[in-house]
Amino acid sequence: MPGDQGHATIGAGDPESHLGVASGLDFAYLHDVPQASQALKTEPAPPVDLPQAASAPWKLVVAKYQQPSTGRSVWQLVNTLVPYAFLWYLMDLSRGVSWWLTLPLAILTAGFQVRVFIISHDCGHGSFFRSRTANDIVGTITGFLTLTPYYHWRWEHSLHHASSGDLDRRGTGDIWTMTVQEYLESSRWKRFSYKLARNPVVLFVIAPLFLFLVWQRFPKARANPRERRSVIWTNVALLVFAAAMSAVFGIRDYVILQLTVLAIAGSAGVWLFYVQHQFEGVYWKRRAEWDYTTAALKGSSFYKLPGILQWFSGNIGFHHIHHLSPRIPNYNLESCHKADPLFQGVKPVTLLSSMKSFTFRLWDERRGKLVGYRGLRRSRRRQEPPTAARPGWSVE
Q1: Distance CA 166, CA 291 (A)
Q2: Under a CB-based contact definition with an 8 Å cutoff, are residues 205 and 263 in contact?
Q3: What's the count of helices (H) and strands (E) in the chain, helices before strands?
Q4: Which candidate, 201, 83, 219, 88, places its Cα nearest to that of 148?
Q5: From its phi and psi, is residue 126 left (phi > 0), alpha (psi between -120 and 50) or beta?
Q6: 216 with 117: CB under 8 angstroms?
Q7: SS3 content of the chain, % helix, strand, coil (to 5)
Q8: Per residue in 209-238, is it b (16+ CB within 10 Å) or e — as a string?
Q9: CA distance 162 to 60
């Protein structure tokens, strides 16, 4: 981050007050999500040095972009859901000609499905419409279209935002990440499981299908009744929808098309989420040192995508802004990023440089960085005791 503007101390004080003012979180909304408020009740983090631009003025900048526009939100619904539905119609027509025509249409449909998910995501943050009712209705419908139970997902995702970058609060709504020390102290079976889970084929091909088809069909044990009902009613609606679509396409063709679209959209979504929090220079701290603002600006990437990919992903590449203030609707993220030197000072991750994220496997607490398994050997050498002297030899 640029450091020639002086420094200001932020991050101290009551966590809820800090989050509410600095990030623009609506706590009346967030406290309505089970366990989310409890996750925010942390001990105040110690002060963290950031550039002077991080003082009060940037909070005012963020506040300008937190107000959703009904017109822009409705237009985004139109330019997303109408093409999405029309592409399903075209896939129905094209399969009677050639599946080679259907495949590119399925890829394009997957792009729109990512965009549908972003709308549901914004609704979950209460940022897409001013009305909570409108957010919940649209969020439920768009969540259903992506096989996602809206209220259950919103609850889990709120916990992710409350703890992202905190090493002591991993495990909810994030990708399994172990520290080097944890890995070295794990059993062989756990290390094998971890390597399997972090394998690119498993993580970006198999896991997305498992997540949307299987994992999200069951509520978590800690989920409250509303979140449980969300899962149940989503499952019922999906069964009815699948039956109706099978009547139109035929069971075999519908399953092929749905799995193809889901596999592509799911892989893209998991990759986006992965790069947003697994990149070179990412911020991770133990709870006593963790700071929400720093975690947002340094623990969430600015993924600078080509224009067309930025459009399909709903500007989610400006993830540092999104984590700083989840109440900013996706169509305002780029404008907010450009509005303050602090935000522009975040180093972008490009499509090319993001490929390096494939090599990251573990968090090295000593070095304060993500490393691959090669970096593991260095840690092992550090922990190995000096070689015992052989008879007739001396160790100096």
Answers
A1: 9
A2: yes
A3: 20, 7
A4: 219
A5: left
A6: no
A7: 65, 5, 30
A8: eebbbeebeebeeebbeebbebbeebeeeb
A9: 22
Distance CA 36, CA 22 (A): 18
Using one digit for the tens of pLDDT, what is the confidence trace for 85-140?
999 999 999 998 999 999 999 999 999 999 999 999 999 999 999 999 999 999 99
In 3D space, the residue among 235, 247, 259, 230 whose CA is nearest the CA of residue 147 turns out to be 235
* pTM score of the predicted model: 0.83
Only one residue has tokens 């990412």, namely: 282
How far from 277 is each of 164, 175, 346, CA to CA, in Å? Answer: 8, 9, 14
AA letter at 295: A
